[in-house]
Amino acid sequence: MSGTQSSDYTQRLARLETSGIRRFLPTQAPYRWNLKRLGLGRVIDIGCGLGRNLLNCSPDSVGVDHNATSVATCRERGLTAYTPGELAEAPDCGPGSFDSLLCAHVLEHMDETLGNTILEQYLPLVKPGGSVVLICPQEAGYKTDATHVRFVDFDGMRTHAEKVGLTVGRAYSFPFPRSVGKVFPYNEFVVVARTPLDA
């Protein structure tokens, strides 16, 4: 995970936002639609990066990232984002203050134990019965980033959910069927789960 903490990693993300076909087409439109249709309410976006997903969440949503340069970029874009230490001191970010947790393109950057630890750290911020959305890249996307350390498929995501006490409600491939993920780098595994009602 240390490879994602530098300013160089933030600069790489910024370059990718405007490279290739992204300069000419609204390539993020399907992913915006996918997030919005889930009706996530106020979201805590774990590993928010430059705020690509945070931009598509409700305006009162909050991002958290261990990369301070990425957090600064989010703020320059008018988003609310914190480093983990700052989040702990932030107003209106206490236990049960979020409707949902989003963890997109994060788990593949760390081993299973750390992934569980990260989820356990932030799940108390989600209200009982709230949504948890886990998103990971499929094969082609996994190969595009040298900081990826572990391929996490549907089974791996379900294992994470079960370990931290979530109930999985839905798992699907997006935006195309699962087989496309072997060649199309932007196909994603998506798992939607719930926190316990008596949390």
Q: How does this structure look, described?
A:
Keywords: Methyltransferase, S-adenosyl-L-methionine, Transferase. It is an enzyme of class 2 (transferase). The protein contains 7 helices and 7 strands, in the order ααββαβαβαβααββ. It is of the alpha/beta class and 199 residues long. The protein has a single domain (2-194), classed as Rossmann fold. Strand 2, helix 3 (68-76) and strand 3 form a beta-alpha-beta unit. It is globular and about 45 Å long. The model has no long low-confidence stretch (mean pLDDT 90).
Write a brief structural summary.
The protein is an alpha/beta fold and about 200 residues long.
Task: List the SSEs and their pairings.
Blueprint (H helix, E strand, L loop, with lengths): L6 H11 L11 H9 L5 E4 L15 E3 L3 H9 L4 E2 L1 H6 L8 E7 L7 H11 L3 E12 L1 H4 L11 H10 L3 E8 L13 E7 L5
Parallel strand pairs: 1-2, 1-4, 2-3, 4-5
Antiparallel strand pairs: 5-7, 6-7
Protein name: Class I SAM-dependent methyltransferase
GO molecular function, one term: methyltransferase activity
EC number: 2.1.-.-
Can you give keywords for this protein?
alpha/beta; Rossmann fold; 30% helix; 7 helices; 7-stranded mixed beta sheet; 7 strands; 22% strand; single chain; 199 residues; globular
In whole angstroms, the N-to-C terminal distance is: 29 Å
Biggest pleated-sheet summary: 7 strands, mixed
How much helix, percentage-wise, in residues? Answer: 25-40%
Tell me the Rg in angstroms. Answer: 16 Å
Taken together, the total number of domains comes to: 1
Shape field: globular
CATH architecture: 3-Layer(aba) Sandwich
Determine the structural class based on helices, strands and strand pairing: alpha/beta
Can you identify the CATH class?
Alpha Beta
DSSP strand count:
7
Question: Looking at CATH, which topology would you report?
Answer: Rossmann fold
**What do the pLDDT scores average to?**
90
Quaternary structure annotation: single chain
Number of helices: 7
Percent of residues in beta strands:
15-25%
